[in-house]
Amino acid sequence: MQITPDEIIYWQYGPVIINATIVFTWGLIVFMVGGSFLITRKIKKTTKPSRWQMMLETIVDVIRQQITEISNQPSATFLPFIGTLFLFIVVSNILLVVPGFQPPTGSLSTTAALALCVFFAVPIFGISQQGLGSYLKQYLKPTPFMLPFNIIGEVSRTMALAVRLFGNVMSGTLIIAILISLIPLVFPIVMQVLGLLTGVIQAYIFAILALVYISSGMREKQENNNQERG
Amino acid sequence: MDNIGLIGMVSIIVSGFTIAIGSVGPALGEGRAAAQAMTAIAQQPDEANTITRTLFISLAMIESTAIYCFVVAMILIFVNPFWNFVTG
Fold first, then answer.
1. Taking CB atoms and an 8 Å limit, are A3 and B79 in contact across chains?
2. ipTM of the predicted structure?
3. How many domains are there within chain A?
4. Residue A229 placed within a domain
5. Which residues of B touch A (CB under 8 A)?
6. Residues B74-80: contacts with CB within 8 Å, 24+ apart?
7. Closest by alpha carbon to A70, among A211, A222, A213, A224?
8. Residue A203 lies in a domain
9. What is the spatial distance between Cα B1 and Cα B3, in angstroms, rounded to a whole number?
10. Is A92 inside any structural domain?
11. Would the pLDDT of A80 be above 50?
12. pLDDT digits (tens, 9 = 90+) for B7-62
């Protein structure tokens, strides 16, 4: 029994390995980009919007609404990054019900990569908002004694982000695999429905936590008119 | 008992304890958080959206400690790093 899709190897030449994680990640990228391209290909101002276009607009609109509600800032800054994270994770988790699909988020490499993106996005967004000095000063608050703890907190929350998503998706697939060998009739379907629920919630939480981390790194200037958050 | 048997036995027993003890705390915490959220929704039904969203986020954060225990248990069972010392 394999616990991550990293262990399914399709092709290997020396140190170069093509495993299931890479294949399904690229498949997912092609699926999402290709799907969005096909839908938005023939947009004109005069035509009536198609159903698929309405679907995409609804998704983007909901993400934008949530971002504004949670960060209390204009959503345009965060929408590309947070929306990408959310859409990638949620599509990958939902496709879990497709037979033969190994969700790439069930591999620690994928989730660690996503968490590293968040780790580097925090200083990038923070410095671009309030400048280098003011951003670095945040580490010295409330007192300079807290500096090591702030740094430890930064690293450990990144690790927590990665392991949380990996653990949830991995436990979902593992439980289904165990149940199929024990009670193959109805119970795996029930657990798959549960897996859909946790998958969507985990994607939501990953995006929300990334948003909270980034906007808390940017908070300095808005502190006067916002209450404490996150 | 030789080393292989010893490592296998200890890993399985410890992974059982890991998931058993590690799930007690988060279970209590999640129950408490959910109960508080229920009370809050009953008092202020208008704020149900915000409360539910915050509840889900906090539940997932509480649950993550249980997930860490689960990951450690899985590592001990399936990809135990100590096998390499005796089999490799």
1. yes
2. 0.71
3. 1
4. no
5. 56-57, 60-61, 64, 67-68, 70-71, 74, 78-79
6. B74/A3, B74/A170, B74/A174, B74/B15, B76/B11, B76/B12, B76/B14, B76/B15, B76/B18, B77/B11, B77/B12, B77/B15, B78/A1, B78/A3, B79/A3, B80/B7, B80/B11
7. A211
8. yes
9. 7
10. yes
11. yes
12. 888 889 999 999 999 999 999 999 999 999 999 999 999 988 888 888 888 887 88
Beta strands in A97-219 (DSSP E): none
User: What is the residue extent of each domain of chain B?
Assistant: 28-77
Beta carbons of A202 and B60 less than 8 Å apart? yes
How many CB atoms within 10 Å of residue A2?
14
CATH number of the B28-77 domain: 1.20.20.10
| R_g of chain A, CA atoms, integer Å | 20
pTM: 0.83
**Secondary structure (3-state) at A13:** strand
B23, B64, B68: best to mutate for the A interface, most A CBs within 10 A: B64
